[in-house]
Amino acid sequence: MNPVLVMKFGGSSLADPAKIGAVADLVIRRRDAGRRVVVVVSAMGKTTDGLIEQSRSFTTEPDLREMDMLLTAGERISSALVAIALNARGAKAVSLTGSQAGIITDDNHTNARIVEIRPYRVQKALDEGNIVVIGGFQGVSFTKEVTTLGRGGSDTSAVALASALDAPECEIYSDVTGVFAADPRVIKEPAKIAALGYQEMQELAEAGAKVLHPKAVEFAKIKGTVINCKNTFAPEAEGTLIANLEGRVKPRVVGIATEEKVVLVHAYEDNAGSLATVESVVAFAESRNLRVKQIAFHRGRGQGMVGSFIIPEKENYHLAPLLREMKDRFGDALDIHEQFGALSLVGAGITERHDYLEQSIRLLKQHGIAAGSFHTTSFRISMLIERGRLAEAARLFYDRFIAPNIL
Question: pLDDT, tens digit, for every residue of 257-310?
Fold first, then answer.
């Protein structure tokens, strides 16, 4: 039996009928090369952003369940149009929603996690000779609630389905040729990365790189699914391979990621035990479905605990009213800093070489750029930079750590 190939197409690849037609032609070429093809699609162009803006014409804090009902419409439209285009070209195709494809999630609206995949209907459609086109970014909970997987969640849908269908490879298509060492909107003509380990790619994605969603990499690890990030408009060009490279590369800086808007929150607990204890702030975030990227705790100069929270704006549709509620509830025991962006150096074993961190601190000081905080993992050095100087800092770090190593 021919192997399954999962192909995922982002919104820019589906922005108009001509581009959808080009995608259909590419899918048919892959099928004619002897693959059974599953296609996962995002919403067309800026559809999701438009739907979010429409919801905000009524309220700044739309109900999250209704947001999921609203936002999943974009991917359903795309999947149906791609299937129509394929059928019009003589290919046999069928479109499915995430729930019809068997993507089962938890009940966490707007940021659900896939719990299980039951791809029985997908497999049956493949066995009947269909190209299967699935709306990404969405699933259904055990309580039959429609859910979405967070921004960029179509990547997660695609790689999770590839894992469940035992597909050896998943092709992720966008309007760029692979993964770059920096954001092309910040660094002019950055170097393309030929290959990345799973953890390196996951750290880049968590730090703001937009080519692939971090949850997608988690599923690729399960069965060693190779991810190939390619360009829809130059499909034969070499992209970036993402595979199990851990232990095969020396400590390195492979890429620089930026996230333009994050919020830094400090919560203080005084000796008497104020309302803004670390525990109460964590409980507040959980109760309001607030996505928090990093949490750190330490003792202050007194006996009270200090908690630091980094909140990404792009992953919290309802952030502005929540910040106001936090200020009203916790008062002076909470500091909220909304002026930061995040910059990260990513690479295998990056903290095994202390000079990377030392050079980072020295480089910022030399150019008078203050860092709001530093955070490290074994694959990442992250820092918060004032938004007005984030692009400048990214260029400095690219010139120091990436440019000298380009062959």
Answer: 999 999 998 888 755 555 456 778 888 888 887 888 888 877 766 656 788 889
Domain count, the chain: 2
Do 238 and 92 belong together in one domain? yes
162 and 20 assigned to the same domain: yes
Tokens at 241, concatenated? 């391979």
Task: State the Cα torsion 5-167-194-341 to the nearest 10°.
Answer: 100
Contact indicator for 183, 209 with CB cutoff of 8 Å:
yes
Residue with tokens 């692979």: 178
The boundaries of the domain holding residue 332 are 256-405
Domain co-membership, 103 together with 243? yes
Both structure tokens of 62: 């739309």
End-to-end CA distance of the chain: 42
d(Cα 369, Cα 389) in Å, to the nearest integer?
7
pTM across the whole model: 0.83
For range 49-66, the mean pLDDT: 91
The reply to whether 32 and 74 lie within a common domain is yes
**Among residues of the chain, what percentage have pLDDT more than 70?**
96
Q: Do residues 230 and 173 make contact, with C-beta atoms less than 8 angstroms apart?
A: yes
Residue 304 and residue 202 share a domain: no
Both tokens assigned to 390: 């984030």
Strand partners, 337: 264
- Please check whether residues 200 and 346 belong to one and the same domain: no
The DSSP-derived string for 362-403 is HHHHHTTPPEEEEEEETTEEEEEEEGGGHHHHHHHHIIIIIG
Strands 138-141 and 226-231: unpaired
**Which has the closest alpha carbon to 155: 27, 44, 7?**
7
Q: How far apart are CA 230 and CA 5, in angstroms?
A: 14
Query: Which residues, 6 or more positions from 388, have their beta carbon under 8 angstroms from its beta carbon?
Result: none
